[in-house]
# Entry
Amino acid sequence: MAGELRSEHVGSRVRLAGWVHRRRDLGGLIFIDLRDRKGVVQVSCDPDVLSSEAMESARRIGSEVVVAIEGDVVARPPEAVNPDMATGEVEVKAEGIVQLAPAETTPILVAYGADEELASEELRLRYRYLDLRRPEMLGNFVLRHRVFHTIRGALDELDFVDVETPMLTRPTPEGARDYVVPSRVSHGEFYALPQSPQLYKQILMVSGFDRYFQIARCLRDEDLRADRQPEFTQLDVEMSFVAEDDVWTVIEIVMAAVWKEVAGRTVERPFQRMSYRDATERYGTDKPDLRIAWELCDLSDDLRSSEFRIFRGAIEGGGRVRGFRVPGGAKLSRKVLDGLDKVAQDAGAPGALWTKLSDTGAQGGFGAKLSETELTALRGRLQAKEGDLIVSIAGPEPQGNAALDALRRHLGSVMDAVEEGDRFLWVTEFPLFERDPESGEPVPSHHPFTGLNLEDVDLLEKDPLSIRSRAYDLVYNGSELGSGSIRINDPSMQRRVLAVLGIGPEEAERKFGFLLEAFKYGAPPHGGFAIGLDRVVMHLAGGSSLREVIAFPKTTAARALMEGAPAPVADEELKELGIKRIRRTDA
RNA sequence: GGGGCUGUAGCUCAGUUCGGUUAGAGUGCCGGUCUGUCACACCGGAGGUCGCGGGUUCGAGUCCCGUCAGCCCCGCCA
# Structure
């Protein structure tokens, strides 16, 4: 193909078909850059070879016209070799050019120059087929293909079986909002598109499938983000007769294979592991970016009786003072330091407290408010020295965590302290429940079938919020790639957990009766994992938006701009579905 | 549901601070010159509901109100 021609092909005759990437008309000579899936090659149109009619048509041919070209591959004259081009040592001397399809002037460019800005994302989505012609975009999807291919190969090698589960499923009241599909046959009843194959894969374990996987489409009707699409692809895995380590090992093998195969990078196995408690204590988040080395420290003991009202007040109010050391951070400008308040505030804290360490003590910020003893204690605890910056947050816990995490990442990037590398991390022992901020009642932090740490079973009814689960997340460079758990396979334990969640036998029966019923007939111990593959591909492609690695993504309003979805349907069609349109009740 | 940014030529943007002549640039497009270019170069030309609606004003791309769209974030995402 055009993009594959190299000097070894010189002398061979080729017939190429593709798109006119660019054309350079020098008057006598015309050069056409011909693009196909493998890349671009230069075609030369020489009046000594081509008829004057053929030269005339080559002169008129526009960008993105589809053409077939026949000719010999020749070496370029030495002075005309283009080292920036994979095919730059050769060109095709055209002897015949046929237009296979015309092309109007495109609304957005395909062939961008090095410094040219891409068209707006809105237009790129509207004319997605043109945007996807760009070699960078095509490259993302070739990479995506290789990721999927590698995963399938690795799991096949590990004796997993790929099983498909339904797209039309039972609506679930738990979790994310369902995309709902009306039933034509049963008016008033609805299917839901799957949020994940969770219940099906557990049922497959009851069926004895033992090692299941699926690359599954999942749909959730929630608001979008750069890293969140309503429709996404997940690697779904479930295994029987396993504990955490068995699941982790499988995922580690798969991820290492992907990174090796697709990026040519070796990642160390086993991945680092850290409990949820450790992660939040040391980094202020359940998805720490370990490329930033700095860790948080509790400074409360050193400041308990401080004259500085903010510190003492926070501690007396039941909160804590925590902080971290930014090596060399004393050189940061006043502007950057003043900006820390906003970073902390955006994360829900009243503000950020900081001081610079110099040879004479602490300068600026809270440094002046502390006694000599307190400063010395802080320096010792943080192992901080002259030239460092100390940043801290005083106050109650959840806000403090979020702010410390935000400050750590913000300053990590400002100080250029984010190391290169692939830092995978298992975060383990998530709490089984968290408190619903509105009702105050416990709600599952993962899902209601998550197994619990056997040491904590006795606390189930007494202190549910303190129970550690057998759920785990996989974190890559500060980004959550996926999560999983060892599940509950004992029907009576499942009933106890549901009871704590305020779901009685009747409600449980109505919501997931089929799962509970299946568990009556011999459910093996099992557990699994799910990985967001769009995010994996995004990271490997070096991007920051899923839209770069999903062929036809939705906008932030969940609309498809190219085909125009969603769209109204005819009243007649609605009638057949037993659905009546109601007027919007806008005020 | 809330907050922020953006919307001007096919495309990318300037012009909006502080209302005032005929709204500019680059690129693409069209025409011309050019036999080693590679974002070819050079010369010329066409191309605008200033997102949409309303208001203030002698006068609105510019000010005010509303609305639509795209993007980023919070909420939400078991």
